[in-house]
Design a protein that fits this description.
By secondary structure, the chain is an alpha/beta fold. The chain is built from 21 helices and 18 strands. About 40% of the residues lie in helices and about 10% in strands. The radius of gyration is 27 Å and the shape is globular. The chain starts with 9 loop residues before the first helix and ends in a 10-residue tail after the last helix.
């Protein structure tokens, strides 16, 4: 941590930052007792974690991971570490598991960031937000869009790219790297060509006559003759070049993709698009299309699937549900990190003002591998509660990302042992599965415990609530369970989290709230008399890391707690539950059998992801080379344009392994 030849007094600086945090906390909470023993201050575990993460005693900063037990204050450690790094001159991107956690933690620390003058250097994201931001270019990745747009126009780039050279990636849990939307996946940016909306309108208007044209190539040739198409090629002459050896130009590739999307909208129906692409909903008030997130079950109104989304809006305009001018009032469009090979880029042109940015030609301009993201930071640090339960494959992946140093911080709390009950795997109908959950929750409530039922997604929460209502099921004290899901209003979240640990309270939470949320026992009665919070985990965790995170919602710090799993056999089909021999051996229980089966499933899955990653890294390299070459071009030498066309073409071309991991 040397700067200008002098070693700052890190310990003294850390003490001042911690004192400022304590002072601001006293002000925020309105405390009147400001004795040292009464004021909130970082715990010894947190201080030790910060010092280890910064490698105190080491000759230089280096990528490093540390483990702090679940419930022992990683959020505070990350917040204070980000302040120290910002004071050392770095820009800091803090990445949390979910948007809820990133918003919660930023809100908790923004007063500290502002008071020490580093609020402009610290940013909190979830993994999708940080990858989307980075891949848009101009920060830690090249601006592929600017380079490709200049190429299509046959012009040189007007300026050099600016990159943040002194930036740090700070991770709250490292298992975001193992997700199939990150490792082994890629971002395929696209550009929206100005004045090309007219072509979308013309194609939509003539979709019936186009559908009646026989062969695919005849349809493409027909659209190529439109005056709107000819006008676009005059503005972007290099669209006529051939990116690959198939003899198809850039513009023909785009028209082919456009017509493929158009085929999902026969007549006045959009049901094929919903089935083939992704389920979506249309918000009548805001006039926005939202795609249903498969994990949370919540519609995301900031996602676009290229021409499919463009034609979806055209459908609602034709139906009278919205007017063309409504498109300019829709101001946020985000890239979709996941991609489907069959639909091309899941892209909306980045954050931009006005939905017309997705209603036009959208040629893809390369491939950027998510796995290359950490390498564009000066340093990457991570805090985790699960380092010592990662699989061999997961540890190899961390080594690929440059994490060779790790430290496990021993707990300084009087940790109590989690009371685990036997796992139930039910083969009956879903109603019997829900009935078992209700019975378990009712029994634990009768004992005075607070009960958290962790369900896989929003859809399952809705189905469970419907079952309770339709079956006339009466829960203790005639209560209706609280819900913590992606739909929970921001102002209600912390209140519901607080109330969820009241004695005899049942709360339904979705998977994201099973990570990092502080379900703390308030008062001694629930802890000492009733044994704290009881968890009912109603799905099989993705891996042992997630299992530990979920179980970490109870037994936090020195609180007691208990947990059990109630799993529906239908939810285990990805592990082979539809096979006749899917059952534990005589010397196994369900936990052992499911853990072994899951480990083998993940091993095969990671092998496929590694193959995809290797191909994406090569395309990433080609994209980098094309962007660098665009920086060097000073004229309009035709052979150079041909070379660039091939580079962009190879960097963008889809292959069989572009299919999503299974």
């Amino acid at each position: 941590l040397k700067k200008e030849g002098k070693s700052p007094k890190v310990g003294e600086l850390l003490g001042l930052v911690c004192a400022q945090w304590s002072f601001l906390t006293v002000q925020k909470e309105g405390c009147t007792d400001v004795k040292r023993t009464s004021v909130k201050q970082p715990h010894g575990t947190q201080i030790l974690g910060i010092l280890c993460l910064l490698g105190l005693g080491s000759p230089a900063l280096t990528n490093r991971l540390i483990q702090i037990g679940t419930g022992e204050g990683k959020s505070i450690s990350l917040g204070i570490t980000s302040v120290l790094l910002a004071l050392f001159g770095f820009s800091v991107d803090v990445v949390c598991y979910s948007r809820y956690l990133s918003e919660r933690d930023y809100d908790a620390f923004q007063d500290l960031f502002r008071s020490v003058g580093v609020i402009d250097r610290i940013h909190y994201y979830d993994i999708n937000e940080v990858t989307s931001k980075a891949m848009q270019g101009g920060t830690n990745m090249p601006n592929a869009r600017a380079a490709f747009l200049a190429f299509l126009m046959g012009k040189s780039l007007t300026g050099r790219e600016s990159k943040r050279t002194d930036s740090v990636l700070l991770l709250d849990e490292v298992d975001v790297f193992f997700d199939d939307h990150f490792y082994g996946s890629a971002y395929r940016p696209s550009v929206k060509l100005e004045d090309s909306f007219a072509l979308i309108q013309r194609v939509w208007k003539e979709k019936v006559s186009i559908a009646n044209i026989g062969r695919k190539q005849q349809k493409i040739d027909h659209v190529m003759k439109f005056k709107e198409t000819e006008r676009i090629v005059r503005s972007f002459p290099n669209l006529a070049l051939f990116p690959l050896d198939d003899g198809v130009s850039f513009i023909e590739h785009e028209i082919r993709d456009m017509l493929e999307a158009l085929s999902c909208f026969p007549g006045d129906s959009i049901e094929i698009a919903k089935k083939e692409i992704a389920s979506f909903t249309f918000h009548e008030e805001t006039k926005r299309v939202g795609y249903i997130d498969q994990v949370s079950g919540v519609p995301d109104f900031g996602v676009s699937f290229g021409y499919y989304t463009a034609f979806t809006y055209m459908h609602y305009i034709q139906r009278g549900a919205m007017e063309p001018q409504d498109l300019t009032e829709i101001v946020t469009v985000e890239e979709k990190p996941a991609l489907l090979a069959s639909v091309g880029s899941a892209s909306g042109g980045g954050r931009a003002k006005g939905m017309p940015n997705i209603l036009g030609l959208q040629p893809r301009c390369g491939t950027l591998s998510y796995s290359e993201l950490p390498g564009n930071y000066a340093f990457t640090f991570g805090m985790s509660g699960t380092l010592n339960c990662l699989s061999a494959t997961q540890n190899r992946i961390l080594q690929e990302f440059g994490f060779s140093l790790r430290t496990e911080i021993p707990s300084t709390f009087k940790k109590q042992t989690l009371c685990r009950e036997e796992t139930q795997v039910l083969e009956e109908k879903q109603t019997q599965f829900f009935d078992a959950i209700c019975a378990a929750a009712t029994y634990k409530c009768a004992l005075g415990k607070a009960v958290l039922v962790i369900l896989e997604n929003e859809t399952r929460v809705e189905a469970f609530q419907k079952y309770i209502k339709d079956s006339g099921k009466e829960l203790p004290d005639k209560q209706i369970p609280l819900e913590l899901t992606g739909k929970t209003d921001l102002k209600d979240r912390e209140l519901f989290v607080y109330k969820s640990t009241e004695s005899r309270k049942i709360t339904l939470i979705t998977r994201p709230y099973g990570r990092g949320t502080d379900f703390v026992c308030h008062g001694t009665r629930l802890k000492e008399k009733f044994g704290g919070v009881h968890l009912i985990i109603a799905f099989h965790p993705h891996d042992e890391s997630e299992n530990r995170q979920l179980e970490g919602r109870t037994c936090r710090q020195d609180d007691p707690g208990s947990s059990q799993k109630i799993i529906w056999m239908e939810d285990l089909k990805h592990l082979g539950s539809d096979k006749s021999d899917f059952k534990p051996a005589l010397d196994q229980n369900w936990d052992q059998f499911l853990a072994e089966t899951r480990d083998e499933y993940l091993r095969l899955k990671y092998e496929k992801m590694q193959i995809k990653k290797a191909e994406y890294v090569e395309k990433h390299r080609l994209t980098m080379e094309a962007c660098d070459k665009m920086q060097e071009i000073g004229g309009v030498d035709f052979p150079e344009w041909l070379d660039l066309a091939r580079m962009f073409g190879k960097a963008t071309a889809l292959t069989l392994s572009d299919q999503p991991a299974t």
